[in-house]
Each structure stands twice: as C-alpha cells, then as structure tokens.
Amino acid sequence: MLTTLNLKVGSILHDMEQNIDHRVIYMNKDYLVTILINDSKRKIELNEWHLETVQYFIAKKEIAIRESKHDKVFDFDALSEKSKETYLRNKDIVETVGDIYGPCYFCLGTRKPKPCFQELADKYNISKKTVFYVIKQYLTNGLDPFALLPQIGKKSKANMHYSTKTGRPPMFEQVMLAYK
User: Fold this and answer.
1) E-assigned strands of the chain?
2) Which candidate among 61, 80, 113, 140 keeps its CA 20 to 30 Å from the CA of 162?
3) What is the DSSP string of 42-73?
4) Which strands form 63-66's sheet, in the order they lie side by side?
C-alpha cells in the first residue's frame, strides 16, 4: 500500500547511504525532478524519480524527506539600487531560461550548446559562467526568490570585532634576553 508523501517543490530528499541531498525542482502526479545540491563539480546533475520508487526507498529507510526552509523574506523596496538591479537581472535570467528549458530543466544537464546563455551574458554584460551560476543557485535553493539576491559579502567577517584575541593561546612565552 502506498502512503501519501509530503513532498513539494523545494523539499529535500536525503540519500542515507551516500549522504547526499537532492532538491525537488519539479513535481508531476507520477514523477518528480531533483537537482543534486552538494555537488562539488561545477555542473548541474538532474535526476528523475518516480513517486513509487521514492515511496519504496522511504519505506526501506534509504531516503528521508526534509522540508525546505523558505523562511528568508526580503523587502524589495528596502534593497539598495544596486541590489535591486542585480535581483531584477537574475530574475530575468531565471525566467528566460525557465521559458526555454523549464519546467524540468533536463537540457541544462547535457553538453548541448545553450545559445540563450550567451545571449543573456551579452544582454547584461556578464560572463556565461555568471549566468550558469545564477541558474544553478536558483535551482539548488528550490526555486526560492531569495537566491536571486546578490550573495557577495553575506559571509564576510569584515565587521567582526573581538575583545580578546581568538585562537589557541601560545604554548611558550616569548622572552627577550639582554646581553651586556
């Protein structure tokens, strides 16, 4: 007997054996499409899963479902002008690629030429690598609009101030000897 799954676009399928995560980017009544999240290679790996197969793996405890965390909300009007421009550029890139390759995006995982990448790169005066990065970030974040915001400086440590020196204390004291 098949149980109903609490799956939606943005959910994460965690493979227990290989310890890898797949994000759901498209769902149909019979199958779903996932993208590999923690891929160290700079490519897009898409997989098609039949719902019966997912249910089988869940029953055998080989796959676990994790809910997406779309709790990041931003106010578009509060963004700086540069951030607004970047967000609108990234949104246009994602929408254009979605119109051409969506909703499953299988052609993005192939080696076939993608002329729209070059067109978008020329339109916004950016590299094709940047276009690819924007699309990959959007898909691996489960089609979350927050992924379209500029990510530069989000993990910066420039504004951290410490009252004491961090790290392990020295094992030996430095002594200065004076010779006469």
Assistant:
1) 12-15, 20-27, 31-36, 46-50, 63-66
2) 80
3) SS--EEEEEHHHHHHHHHTTSEEEE-------
4) 46-50, 31-36, 20-27, 12-15, 63-66
Taking the CA of residue 88 as centre, how many other CA atoms within 13 Å lie in the half-sphere pointing to its CB? 10
Check residue 125 and give its pLDDT.
93
Output phi, psi for 80, to 5 deg: -70, 165
Q: How far, in Å, CA of 8 to CA of 24, rounded?
A: 7
How high is the pLDDT of residue 77?
82
Tokens, residue 85: 């421009």
pTM to 2 decimal places: 0.74
Say if residues 141 and 35 touch (Cβ distance below 8 Å): no
pLDDT category of residue 1 using cuts at 50, 70 and 90: very low
115 neighbors 128 (Cβ within 8 angstroms): no
